[in-house]
Design goal:
The chain is α/β, with parallel strands linked by helices and 673 residues long. Helices cover 31% and strands 17% of the residues. A seven-stranded mixed sheet has the order 15-14-25-24-23-16-17, with helices on one face. A five-stranded mixed sheet has the order 2-1-5-3-4, with helices on both faces. A five-stranded parallel sheet has the order 20-19-18-21-22, sandwiched between helices. A hairpin with an 8-residue loop joins strand 11 and strand 12. The protein binds iron/sulfur cluster (3 copies) and FE2/S2 (inorganic) cluster. The site of one iron/sulfur cluster (SF4) has 12 residues, from helix 4.
Length: 673
């Protein structure tokens, strides 16, 4: 039922306005297009009323009121600007500037600083109070962010963001009086502290006190007004966090989370360290031209015509002479749904390749094995169910590395909602906060799961299995507590990671699925189980059948193959026996694949992940999201569509989709199946 909100009539700067009861004066003014300056207030955070920059006059009283914390009342007469109010705001601004070091000229945030902008707006061109010349420490222990307390204005936004959005409460005010500063945990450095490195504190900081260590210099960034904001998503782990990418002159300058508005996600617009910082790094040596390895092993540039002819020619020859058995295709599941369809169709239909797989095929085979056994309904739950669970069993998973936002959600659940979290078999930074932690070596995980099954299903206490798994007395005690907590829980959820799917033992996963089923399915008919997949679009690749049900052959009859690489990510391939013995291997890659330099024969450059549009599938496979192109690829790099179109034409293959749009539709259809 809709709740009826009472309306309140008041006047702001002589204008009569009608607003919802319960709003603050600041909100009422903004809703009516009247601007009031603020510093400590942020629309994604609770109001604090600390900086007094938003003061207004109410009912003619000379005692000014902070509009961000004062609720509206019927008949109120508010004045937001007059000489006296401006003088008060300017004086407060002078104190802020005098208190610490705000030499904008030497600050990496200059041009993109709310404090600086407001000082200009208030026409503060000199100080009438003396500088305090207090010296405060700086903290550059984190790879990603620097803290310079000399530029902090103690507005508390970072403290509230860390507590309210992230749920970590790492930050707080420390010391008193002139020594007051923002401390991390018990006066730790950022690196030593329990900080997740998510960077929300930095995003909401209105000054240069918390800055991004990548691309932070004014010389690169210039003024933020000259940046182009692009709404897109992060495709690195399958959680598809919405981001705003800021670009100037084809430089990616900043990535922010979308903190405001309800987007139906439990993370409230957070980003993790990967989404916010990793994309700003310069990774690997870019390939900006096709290259061919010469007879003496050196790499030489070639033309597009030469490379397309060479690669299509070799694959076609092998297809004609030896058949598809002699051709392989291997793709990174970091690629978009569209790229994966292009790759799969070209390999299977264009080249008749019999073996096509993804780098994470081993994990796929574990999951597919459970489907094959057909014992369990196997539709995974959405990761968004995590905050609602009263108990989460983390099995062989390290979400802080694979899907970092999940670590944050669990941390928040533990600290703010008494969510029970059991970590079994893998260490993760979440582990010190976990309710239960049972460490076992990776190989012993199946024993632990076997004991868990016995304990939960009441078919014994699994004592022998626990002994075999090498659990000490404390771990055995913790194990029995886990079994009891699971039995008592009403809404538990299993979160399984790579250490378990990597075992290539579907029976273990099937056991977990059956335990999950014991507590009933979710209303959308999904199992209480989420599988954290290894790459950004693993779920998409798996759903589109690109990963192979058969293991990569140790020794093969491969004579030619094509590899689709994503970001520098070739470690898996370097170990492939079959690759080494194949006669001809070409790679399509944005980067020069250093560890494959002696194993591939031809390199086709492609756009890096931010240089191409595409859709990606969420970690559990329920949703897709569109990632728009943020940057232009270097001159001389063809996009994936053109590369595969050209290769397909040259082997005489004509796919049914003849445009990117139709390709996207096909990919979407396959994901939804
Ligand atoms: S934080 Fe802002 S106001 Fe302070 S020095 Fe840096 S740019 Fe200037
Ligand atoms: S980076 Fe994230 S977790 Fe760390 S202090 Fe800032 S808000 Fe808190
Ligand atoms: S670090 Fe930034 S956000 Fe935090 S209190 Fe200081 S100025 Fe405010
Ligand atoms: S913005 Fe209102 S007191 Fe700081």
């Amino acid at each position: 039922m809709e709740t009826k909100v009472n309306k309140v009539k008041l006047s702001i700067d002589g204008k009569e306005v009608l607003v919802d009861d319960g709003l603050t004066i600041l909100e009422a003014a903004r809703q009516n297009g009247i601007d009031i300056p603020t510093l400590c207030q942020h629309e994604a955070l609770s109001n604090w009323g600390g900086c007094r920059m938003c003061v207004v006059e109410v009912d003619g009283s000379p005692k000014l009121i902070a509009s961000c914390v004062m609720p509206v009342r019927s008949g109120m007469a508010v004045v937001t600007t007059n000489d006296y109010i401006l003088e008060c705001r300017r004086t407060m601004m002078e104190f802020i500037f005098a208190e610490r070091n705000h030499n904008c000229m030497f600050c990496p945030q200059s041009g993109d600083c709310e404090l600086q902008k407001l000082a200009y707006e208030l026409q503060m061109d000199h100080l009438t109070v003396a500088f305090s010349f207090n010296k405060f420490p700086t903290d550059v222990t984190s790879e990603y962010m620097a803290i310079d307390h000399n530029r902090c204005i103690l507005c508390g936004r970072c403290v509230r963001a860390c507590k309210e959005i992230v749920g970590a409460s790492v930050l707080n005010f420390q010391n008193r009086g002139p020594k007051n500063l923002i401390g991390m945990d018990l006066d730790e450095t950022r690196e030593q502290s329990s900080c997740y490195g998510c960077g929300i504190c930095m995003q909401v900081c209105p000054t240069g006190a918390m800055v991004n260590r990548y691309r932070s210099h004014y010389a690169v960034k210039g003024h933020s007004k000259d940046w182009q904001p692009l709404d897109t998503v992060c495709s690195q782990c399958g959680l598809l966090c919405p981001t705003v990418n800021f670009v100037k002159d084809n430089n990616l300058l900043n990535i922010e989370g979308k903190l405001t508005g309800d987007n139906g996600r439990p993370d409230r617009g957070q980003l993790c360290y990967k989404g916010r910082f990793e994309a700003l790094k310069n990774t690997g040596k870019r390939l900006d031209s096709p290259m061919v390895r010469s007879g003496n092993g050196t790499w030489e540039k070639s033309t597009w015509d030469e490379i397309l002819k060479l690669v299509s020619g070799k694959l076609n020859d092998v297809k004609k002479k030896e058949g598809g058995e002699a051709i392989f295709g291997l793709a990174s599941s970091a690629a978009s749904n569209e790229e994966l369809v292009l790759f799969r169709d070209f390999m299977t239909q264009g080249c008749s390749a019999v073996y096509v797989d993804t780098f994470d095929g081993a994990h796929f085979r574990t999951v597919a094995g459970v489907y094959k056994e057909g014992k369990e309904a196997f539709r995974e739950a959405s990761w968004k169910m995590i905050p609602q669970a009263d108990m989460v069993m983390l099995l062989g998973a390290a979400p802080s590395q694979s899907q970092p936002m999940i670590s944050t959600l669990l941390g928040k659940g533990i600290l703010q909602r008494s969510q029970k979290v059991a970590v079994l078999g893998e260490t993760d930074p979440i582990q010190p906060y976990a309710t239960y932690y049972i460490p076992v070596a990776d190989g012993a995980l199946p024993l632990l799961i076997g004991a868990l099954k016995a304990g939960i299903k009441g078919s014994g206490d699994g004592g022998k299995l626990l002994e075999k798994a090498g659990l000490d007395a404390d771990a055995v005690k913790a194990f029995h507590e886990v079994v009891k907590a699971f039995s008592d829980s009403v809404n538990p959820l299993f979160v399984v990671g790579e250490k378990l799917t990597g075992l290539e033992d579907p029976a273990v996963l099937a056991d977990i699925a059956s335990l999950a089923k014991q507590k009933g399915l979710y209303p959308d008919n999904t199992l209480r189980l989420i599988i954290l997949k290894p790459r950004g679009n693993s779920a998409g690749a798996w759903k589109m059948g690109i990963s192979s049900s058969n293991k990569v052959p140790g020794k093969s009859k491969w004579k030619a193959g094509l590899v689709l690489l994503g970001e520098p990510d070739d470690s898996y391939l370097a170990a492939l026996e079959g690759l080494k013995s194949a006669g001809f291997v070409a790679a399509i890659s944005p980067y020069f694949p250093e560890s494959l330099a002696d194993q591939v024969d031809a390199l086709i450059p492609k756009p890096a992940w931010l240089e191409e549009e595409g859709t990606f599938t969420s970690v559990e496979g329920h949703e897709t999201a569109y990632k728009q192109k943020t940057l232009q690829a270097p001159a001389g790099v063809m996009d994936s569509w053109e590369i595969f179109k050209n290769l397909a034409e040259r082997v005489g293959f004509k796919p049914e989709y003849q445009s990117w749009k139709n390709l996207s539709k096909k990919a979407e259809h396959e994901i939804k199946k």
